[in-house]
Amino acid sequence: MFSIMCLKKDQRGITLIETMMAIAMLAILLPVMAFAFTRLARESSFFNVRQRLDSGLALTYSELSSELASAQSFNVSGSTWGVNPSSFSFVDDDGETITIDCIDDTITLPGGDQTVKRLRWTRGVETQFLTDSDINVTTWIAQVARDGSSRLSGINITVTFSVLNKEDAPYKDAESSLIMTIAIPSSVSEL
Amino acid sequence: MINFSKNHGFVMLEALLATGLVIIFLGGLGTLFTLNINGSARVHQFEQAQAVAESGLQALRTLAFDDLTVKDPAHLVFSSPNWTIVDGSETIGDFTRTVSISEVQRDGDCNVVASGGTVDPDSKMVSSEVTWSDLAGREHTTTLSGLMTRWNDPQGDCFMPAAANNLIFHIETTLWYGGKQLRELYLENGGSDPFTISHMTFTWDNSANIQQIFMDSNKLWSSSGPGTPSGLQPSGTRLDITDATINPGEIFDMNKTQFDSAMSATTLTLTIEFTDGSIFVSDPFIPSYSGSGTGTLTCFTSSDLNFYIPFKTSTSGDYPTMGTTPDSVTVRTSSPTSSGYLNIGASFSGISSDILDPIIYLTFSDLDLHTITFTSGTRKATGAEAFILKDGAGLTLASLGTSHPDTGSFTWSQALSTDLFSSSPVSFTLRFSTLIQLIKGTYYTLSNSAEAVTGIQICGTVP
């Protein structure tokens, strides 16, 4: 006990002023840094959502372009044009009828069931969705495009995707739109 | 023992250094994070720009070649159902899109050259250019270009006239022979070179199937070969036929092109694909109808029928011994299903054995082909009815069940074979059946109501 007390007499530790200055600097810097990082993380998250929507649009565009380029015939009179949601059907290169429409699908989220509009691809009895269950297709308006001689030459599709989150609200209003034009080869007949 | 005598703790400088290091580390981390986001954003913007540019190029491709006039810069305006090209550029979100149409020059070997060639009247270069600014304000541009040609109707020397343009399609005297066989549809080669047909696609507006295609005496496709696919094929099926070559000036009759049921008043189209890749699509046409050359459309009518379809085997049988009074059944858990049937004979006399394209028409009243669910409290049962048409020998000609699109009161028709009319009278059996099932509860009692078949007719062309 005696010897320890002697040692303490020679020891110079952190002064109160130094401690307070360090704490003050950290108190100034840490909130700034925390705010900056939080903002970055939020932007990154939002950006990822936007990127996913745009990638989904690009993928849908690519798939439809590919399908229509090899179609045999297009059922114009049997399709629904100019309304939201539209639907259209065509006969593919195997002679099978394919229908693209936008239907309500119920998905279960932690906040409860939600109805989401999804793009559906139907070929005979085979059905699959073109969009993920958390992407809401809020706009799907297809219109016929014709050339100067009134030949069916393409379709225009105005499409908007938005993302749902668990709290039943559009994820930070993230949505993405595109006007897709798909040229239809002259070999495709019109039904 | 530890000696603390030289220990002076942290001084102000050390505290500042440590804080500075923390700032540098966190700042670096933040910069990396930001750079990553900005890099991804640039890639993302480029992908978006590509989609906008691609959409512009596709819109240009919807225009007819004759509508492509040289223009630069220009943008596209859609006024349903046509795209038009107007001067100037357009803004789409964060992007500016400009399209252009320019002449194409080719050298003496018809190769595309940038300059020094002659303008090809059958080609136009179309481009879709998209510009945008990134987060740092730097300008970016992506351009998609393509060549559009009038290959199928060339005016210049670099494209051969397409076979489809040399086809002369004669439908002036086209007719249905015997109601099912297409005759006097002529294909003529009006060009100076032979052409070869590789595929044909017929469309028609009824449920018939195509059986065979002939060109003069050559069978090009049939359900049992040659050609693919095999089997009877519905409207719109692309048929890979035996290649058929037509020399300049030759005319072939597509006689004996046959379908499996009556085709009178049917609207047809024919798409013909040639080995040079060109395609001819006919306008819709309606061949004239001629049975065996002469004849009148006549209908033979039978009496209307009113009956009850039995629910139980014990009450089932032939009409009018059975089926003239209401029936009821109780299904229980020990016997959860019950079925019954009623056979009704119908005969027609006076129909010529030469009748062509005979069709039977029946109008059903309250025929519940689609399953109906009955509930009473928590108890539940289902019931469904079915119909079978049999000939006099008991062979099934057609049947209607739950998959039939109509239910309740509706009119149904069925093409009949002329073989049925070899002797008179012509007899049929209309067989109705029911199936009752207990779904929930210990029992369920059901009673039937009257059914009816009215307007029973056989119509056909009688020479």
Provide the low-confidence segments of chain A as ranges.
1-9
- How many strands of chain A? 9
Described by the principal axes of the CA atoms, the overall outline of chain B is flat
What does the radius of gyration of chain B come to? 38 Å
The biggest sheet of chain A amounts to: 6 strands, mixed
Count up the domains of chain A. 1
Q: Round the mean pLDDT of chain B to the nearest integer and report it.
A: 86
What is the tally of beta strands of chain B?
Answer: 33
What does this structure look like?
- The complex is a heterodimer of chains A (191) and B (463).
- Chain A is 33% helix and 43% strand.
- Chain A is α+β, with helices and mostly antiparallel strands and 191 residues long.
- In chain A, a hairpin with a 5-residue loop joins strand 2 and strand 3.
- Chain A has one domain (30-190).
- In chain A, the strands form two sheets. In chain A, strands 5-4-3-2-1-9 form a six-stranded mixed β-sheet, with no helix packed on it.
- In chain A, 29% of the residues are buried.
- Chain B is mainly beta.
- Chain B folds into three domains: 31-149, no CATH class; 163-290, Immunoglobulin-like (Sandwich), CATH 2.60.40; 297-462.
- Helices cover 12% and strands 49% of the residues of chain B.
- Chain B contains two helices and 33 strands.
- Chain B has helices spanning 12-61, 163-166; strands at residues 71-79, 82-87, 90-92, 95-106, 112-113, 118-133, 139-149, 167-170, 175-177, 181-183, 186-189, 195-204, 210-215, 218-222, 238-246, 251-253, 257-259, 268-274, 279-281, 288-290, 296-301, 305-307, 317-318, 328-332, 337-348, 356-367, 372-376, 379-391, 396-400, 408-415, 426-440, 443-447, 451-462.
- In chain B, the strands form seven sheets. In chain B, strands 1, 2, 3, 4, 5, 6 and 7 form a seven-stranded antiparallel β-sheet that branches. Chain B has a six-stranded mixed β-sheet with strand order 14-13-17-10-9-20, with no helix packed on it. In chain B, strands 23, 25, 27, 28, 29 and 31 form a six-stranded mixed β-sheet that branches.
- In chain B, strand 27 and strand 28 (379-391) form a beta hairpin.
- The radius of gyration of chain B is 38 Å and the shape is flat.
- The N and C termini of chain B lie far apart (130 Å).
- Mean pLDDT of chain B is 86; it is low at 1-6.
- Chains A and B meet through helix 1, helix 2, strand 6, strand 7 and strand 8 of A and helix 1 and strand 18 of B.
